[in-house]
Amino acid sequence: MYFSRKIESSVVKALQNNPVVAIIGPRQCGKTTLVKHLLNQTQNSIYLDLERPSDLQKLDNPEWFLSSQKGKLICIDEIQRKPDLFPLIRSLVDEWNSVGIFLILGSASRELLMQSSESLAGRISYNRLTPFLWDEIIGNNSLEEYFSRGAFPRSLLSADSASSFLWRKDFISTFLERDLLFWKNFTPTTMRRVWQMLAHLNGQTADYSTLARSLNVSSVMVKNYIDLLESTFMIEVLPAYHSNMGKRLIKAPKIYIADSGTTAALLGLKSFAAISGHPAIGAIWEQIVLSNLKGSFPDATFYFYRTAHGAEIDIVMHYKNLVFALECKNTMTPSLSKGNYNAIDDIQPKHTFVVTPNEVGWSMKHGIDVVSIDELISKLQTDF
Asked: Does residue 117 have a pLDDT over 70?
């Protein structure tokens, strides 16, 4: 069964206007499935998976092989495994002077992909695919399953919770034991310790020095490992919201494990019942809301707000030159604290949303609405 993805239309439009289109996102988020769905609607294309030895061998002489495919849409999956292709791609698109030439897929951020290659600036459109957004699968899975299994397709769509948990444990091990080795100067043992430590500190502000002491490594090493986890989409780093209000602000970023199911697996929580009784539930709900916002509004920017005097809001969103405040409450009967109201007074948002697991929200007071995730996305898309 194929689930339509939100970025489909953006990818199709980008192919009509750019010689190179990139789809980036974590491993196993559905990039290959999406592209094969799009290629089925394209008459003249070729697909290469660089994790398949036979396809990789075709690129032993890449200029000859790719030149022989002129006129086709050339799709290259897991391109981070052969970054030396980028200069050749730039040369070919400049020579062929057309649009819709290359469709490349990568399990690493734009910055990491381009570290060792020439720039494709002005020639490439980047599109980020996330694991499933809630409104992509709503009606197929319960919110409790989305909470406990996470949003990776094979985990969320598993036949049962035990199979889902096993897939996530294998996913973590594969990243540590195989994918991680592709990047230099990182070891599986240290990365596992860093990742698990971050799972226990999920949604908290980063203190590299404290993490370094706990792990008995240097602060520089901790930062390098965190940067790699962010660049491979395994964590989300939420920066602090800075203003000119003269407040004493908390400036360290907050770090979230980027998928609720991965957090649950790292913490050994096998069901929603286990999560619901664990202190991690609040941060997991914040991450779910943040991930859905980032996936639905790729042009928006996101922060958190906290002062030394206790004023705080989980997420501050800049979108269409407007500021929105979002407080995430994992309860059916939410209320705002004095610190929340103080933060709202400081930020002066266009509107404030209290995001809860309720199916239907309500107006809390003027300028403040209680909403579900799908209501939040809908209101931001249509009301402002």
From this structure: no
How far apart are alpha carbons 353 and 325 in whole angstroms? 6
Round to whole Å and give the CA distance between 69 and 356: 51
Q: What's the pLDDT at 116? A: 47
Q: Tell me which residue of 292, 312, 197, 181 sits closest to 250, measured CA to CA.
A: 312
d(CA 224, CA 212): 11
Contacts of 89 (CB under 8 A, 6+ apart): 20, 66, 102, 104, 120
CA distance 339 to 344: 9
- The C-alpha atoms of residue 321 and residue 384 are separated, in whole angstroms, by 10
CB 137 within 8 A of CB 130: no
- For the chain, where do the domains classified as CATH 1.10.10.10 start and end? 134-382
Structure tokens at 346: 């400081």
* Correct CATH for 8-128 of 3.40.50.150, 3.40.50.970, 1.20.272.10, 3.40.50.300: 3.40.50.300
Q: For 130-177, give the DSSP string.
A: PS--HHHHBTTB-HHHHHHH-S-HHHHTSSSHHHHHHHHHHHHHHIII
Query: Is residue 218 within 8 Å of residue 201, measured between CB atoms?
Result: no
Q: How many CA atoms are closer than 13 Å to the CA of 338, on its beta-carbon side?
A: 2
Distance CA(63)–CA(59), nearest Å, equals: 8
- Half-sphere exposure at residue 57, Cβ-oriented, CA atoms within 13 angstroms: 3
Question: Exposed, middle or buried by CB within 10 Å (0-12, 13-18, 19+), for 193?
Answer: middle
What is the CATH topology of the domain spanning 134-382? Arc Repressor Mutant, subunit A (1.10.10)
User: What pTM, to 2 d.p., does this model score?
Assistant: 0.94
Closest CA to 165 of 265, 291, 85: 265
Q: Residues 238, 302: contact at Cβ < 8 Å? A: yes
Mean pLDDT for 369-379 is: 97
Q: What is the pLDDT of residues 309-346, one digit of tens each?
A: 899 999 999 999 999 999 999 999 999 999 999 999 99
Instruction: Tokens 């494990």: give the residue.
Output: 257
The closest alpha carbon to 351, from 381, 326, 375, belongs to 326
- In degrees and rounded to multiples of 5, residue 66 shows phi and psi of -65, -35
